[in-house]
């Protein structure tokens, strides 16, 4: 007989509502935290067999930082903040081309900002929800059925979970989206690029500690950060006419083929690719006409995926989760009206960030040597006090 877990069975006599969150990444854990803060009982399902702890660097500022404040995360995140570091642009052989001191970046961005590894943000969120959420790893929904009053999710082992709300926060290749809205090709917009990132077991000897070394050439970017033991990492992005072929090839041979001609710390880093910790995927956006269907709502990359080229994915995941919980609380028992209001409020920001990401491709994969040269001149100019002020104001406008 199938096991059935319902709100009434597990919470007899309680007025608390139950939500199922699919995905234990940034969006899913943030949603679990905010829903709990507004009185929901939460079950989190994650397809991975265990927690993830690696990932590329990300920045939280503007609405992302404000959302982290409202979620109560800033004290924990501040302890994990790596701060600002010196950025060095290098030639293909690793020789220094130009340097941007950390204080220049700090002056441009401002103090309400955090630089974090993705895994550290997920760990802070996990620690915040672990004491109250029922988190189950190694499982994914096989069927989702809705009635006027609830959502029923069937898992691979036949267990059925019932709740008033289901949040699909299971990433760009979302199983929830597939089951409720249709197959991925209907919503995935391929941008013709690949990205890779992985932590380094050993800091690169050719890059001083506290320095991020970046090579930018036509169609590609390679960045290696030496932030000390257990804190050093890489990021790669390159133009790719056939992402499917590179995915089939695999991370190590594909990244080596795309960047193997480079020297210095980048060459050192490529020798440390570990299939168990590398993130390697094609770059694409999810574009949908609506993010909810009855009591199922998509959140984060599952709904909109702005891509790493936007530099805003984690911030938008936190902001979206925060707004979702707040809007649900404001609408009481009318979940459908809450989801419609939440989407109406958030969609303009998502459209803005997706458009900025498409424009931002040229920063990570410049179309020509002229574009590379122009970007270098901009980096030189930012070190001038007057230009630095203009950049800070531009960043502030983008975050409003």
Task: Tag the structure with descriptive keywords.
seven-stranded mixed sheet, 400 residues, D-Amino Acid Oxidase, Chain A, domain 2, 2 domains, alpha/beta
Describe the structure in your own words:
- With 400 residues, the protein is an alpha/beta fold.
- The protein folds into 2 domains: 4-72 and 118-188 and 287-361, FAD/NAD(P)-binding domain, CATH 3.50.50.60; 84-115 and 190-284 and 363-398, D-Amino Acid Oxidase, Chain A, domain 2 (2-Layer Sandwich).
- It is built from 14 helices and 19 strands.
- The chain has a 7-stranded mixed beta sheet, with helices on both faces. Strands 8-3-2-12-19-18 form a 6-stranded mixed beta sheet.
- Helix 11 packs antiparallel against helix 12.
- The model is unreliable at 7-13 (pLDDT under 50).
